[in-house]
Amino acid sequence: MTEHVKTEIADGVMTLTLQRPEKKNALTGAMYDTLSDALVRAGTDSSVRVVLFQGDGDSFTAGNDLADFASQARGESAVDSPAHHFIETISKATKPLVAAVQGNAVGVGTTMLLHCDLIYLADNARLITPFVNLALVPEAASSWLLPLRIGHAPAYAMFALGEPMEAATALACGLANAVVPQGELRKRAHDAAIALTRRPAGSLRLTKKLMRDQQRIAAQIAEEGQLFKERLKTPEAREAFAAFAERRPPDFSKLSA
Ligand code: COA
């Protein structure tokens, strides 16, 4: 349990609100664990028909806490297990997942959306997957799902150059259902969640299952996860995390592959 994730269940909707706005909702191990536990509970709790993700403050989430990555890179804490567990759990969710995204959605903030079913973006939303800038590799099956959804070239630019994707572009390439003014975001997403609670749950479950290649997703997550763990321990990754902490650009020029 952590004070940085609020879990509420009302009218068939489990709302999970990221509440660490002072750190742009960067996800700590405890936050991942709370999210995973909530998703597992949602899977079996008949009072939950839909899960809704949202974040307080000006950013949906800045992704994995980079201080946690840095301590994993130094070998001071277990590599990535709460994050990996969350990715596995969200990828296996059987109930509909809805997301309300404002501001920056970095790293897992974007890759988790590939496992959500309805996605509403505020007009200031930006999807960013700077895995290569951090000397890492894509996760959450995004190395397969993102090019599948938007094509190789734009997906590569997001992964390799860290190019942000603006809300309007995300809508145009099918990554979202609607772009709405910031003040309307939560209501729009919640209304959609409520609409789903009124649909037959059995039909929704099967429709979601039919729309996802679960085996392929699991295999991709496993392969990425292995490489991600290896990358976290590289001098390149240590340089990337040190640069973020020291608020300077990373210098990879003296490091070879
Ligand atoms: N992990 C830990 N702390 C983070 C964080 C992260 N992923 N992202 C932001 N923060 C912290 C900053 O260190 C800062 O803390 P401080 O006030 O104690 O110095 C605070 O949140 C505000 O961040 P700041 O960078 O000043 O905000 P911004 O509006 O200028 O930029 C981002 C927002 C999200 C673009 C920028 O913070 C960023 O790029 N963060 C890193 C994202 C990332 O690489 N995530 C990992 C993906 S795999």
Quick structural overview:
This protein has 257 residues and is α/β, with parallel strands linked by helices. It has helices at 29-44, 66-73, 81-91, 108-111, 142-150, 152-160, 167-172, 185-197, 201-211, 214-232, 235-245; strands spanning 5-10, 13-18, 50-55, 97-101, 104-106, 118-122, 126-128, 165-166, 178-180. The longest helix has 19 residues, at 214-232.
Structure in words:
This protein is an alpha/beta fold and 257 residues long. It has a domain at 5-182: Alpha-Beta Complex (2-enoyl-CoA Hydratase, Chain A, domain 1). It is built from 11 helices and 9 strands. The strands form 2 sheets. The chain has a 6-stranded mixed sheet, with helices on both faces. The protein has a 3-stranded mixed sheet with strand order 5-7-8. Strand 1 (5-10) and strand 2 (13-18) form a beta hairpin. Helix 1 (29-44) packs parallel to helix 3 and helix 5 crosses helix 10. The mean pLDDT is 96. Coenzyme A is lined by residues 23-24, 26, 59, 62-67, 104, 106-107, 130, 134.
Q: Any chance you could write out the topology, listing elements then pairs?
A:
Blueprint: E1 5-10, E2 13-18, H1 29-44, E3 50-55, H2 66-73, H3 81-91, E4 97-101, E5 104-106, H4 108-111, E6 118-122, E7 126-128, H5 142-150, H6 152-160, E8 165-166, H7 167-172, E9 178-180, H8 185-197, H9 201-211, H10 214-232, H11 235-245
Parallel strand pairs: 2-3, 3-4, 4-6, 5-7, 6-9
Antiparallel strand pairs: 1-2, 7-8
Helix pairs in contact: 1-3, 2-11, 3-10, 5-6, 5-10
Coenzyme A binds near residues 23, 24 and 134.
